[in-house]
Specification:
Layout (H helix, E strand, L loop, with lengths): L2 H17 L2 H5 L13 H13 L5 H15 L3 H7 L2 H7 L10 H18 L2 H7 L5 H15 L2 H8 L5 H4 L9 H11 L24 H10 L9 H14 L8 H9 L9 H5 L16
The structure holds iron/sulfur cluster (SF4).
The site of iron/sulfur cluster has 12 residues, from helix 13 and helix 16.
Length: 291
Amino acid sequence: MSARRAALLRPLLDGFVESRPWRDRLLADPIEFPHRYDDPRDIETVALLSASLAYGRADLFKPKIAGILDGLGPHPANALAALDVTGARALLDGFVYRFNLPSDVAVLLLGMGATLQRHGSLEAAFLAGRTASWQATLATFAHGLRDAAPEKEIIRKLGPTRGLHHLLPFAEAGAAKRLNLYLRWMVRGADEIDFGVWKGVSPADLIIPLDTHVMRISRWLGFTTRNTIGWATAEEVTASLRLLDPADPVRYDFALCHYGMSGACPVKPVPANCARCPLRSQCTVGRRVKA
Ligand code: SF4
């Protein structure tokens, strides 16, 4: 994207972000769960569980997350640090959500618990694996969590894993949307949405959590010309957003994502929606829609 186009888009996107009804949309977002806690260790652990299971329909995955959190009690980080395989089996008895079975979630929970014991925080573990490559750093973080869990014992006592790679991807392929979402929550802010509890990482380094909604609007606004959701596209969209805000490029993510999720900007443009859309003047698709 050119600097000239970025100069046109910046005031438009800034106004768009300011105009969004944050509070209403928070309840439709898995970030609602970490907002229930005050302690940074509880926030970072609950956030990773919530982001990892945040795929598919929110009305289906949110009760699953809530059920696990109920079992972990008021201080989830302490509960995870003390959790063993027998406790995980009791906690996850009967759990199933799409690709994921109890063993998948047990690896994540016990991996977090062991990581907390070793590093003191998930942030410290992330920073210990930090390299110049954001993609490699995410992969190292995911590998570390999985390696920290007693996977063989988990499988022996809870049964086989099924969607572990989906739950905790290595970011070596794909856009690693949910891991980048987790990082956005931890690093940006604090504001009404994100927490800013990880002080050792700069918001300038974040990569956009690229999903179908952000992808669609990004293409129509000219942030990318690519057609596929993958790491290279996430980097290209983020590079475009850096022209708008070098210090905090993914601050536009929540507004763009929820604009798509809410139905305001569907896959097939709706003339009435485009007519009142604040982005229309710079939207390659919306401008052609007869209102
Ligand atoms: S103008 Fe229409 S297609 Fe473009 S972003 Fe707005 S609602 Fe979506």
